[in-house]
Give the backbone structure.
Amino acid sequence: MRTAPTEQPSTQRTDRATPTGVAPTAPLSTLGQVPWRDIRDSTGSAAAIPVLLQRVAWGDADTSEAALEDLRARICQYGFVVEQATAPAVPFLWELAQLPHVTCRPRIIQLLGNIAGARQWESVAAVYPKLLNHRENPVVWERRARQAVLAHRGALRTLLADQDGEVAQAATELAAALGD
């Protein structure tokens, strides 16, 4: 299998508002730009990730929660083990966290915090350095995932001011975890 591409899968900026008179792009419009079938999540191929992200975006509360839980298990298992598909999924999580109609936004923000704090593979590599010699290097996946969270943290400004108190609280906790 190939490793995840180094570039971010979404070119859409999430840290600024859309200029007046310009229509925003449709949510998750760049999902197809990521080679999901060629990268791995905790179950094998990450091909299901786009469907899960769409269910989070457009599902009712129960559907969104179930899809987010499945997504969490695939990209941040146990809340601290990231996968190759984690970094490519992060920009979409940031996007979803900012959409008022998404019902599980506080949990998405918490997932971003879990991803940013993940150090499982780095901890293992510290005592078992041969891990760094593997072709599919999970330490790199972990670092890319953390960098992807940090790269989109400009969206925190909007989330901190959100009218939904749970969203604002989750954003406050994430900002503290990121050192912002």
User: Anything to note?
Assistant: The helical segments are 49-58, 61-75, 86-97, 105-117, 120-127, 138-151, 156-160, 165-178. The mean pLDDT is 83. The first helix runs from residue 49 to 58. Residues 79 and 114 are 6 Å apart (CA to CA).
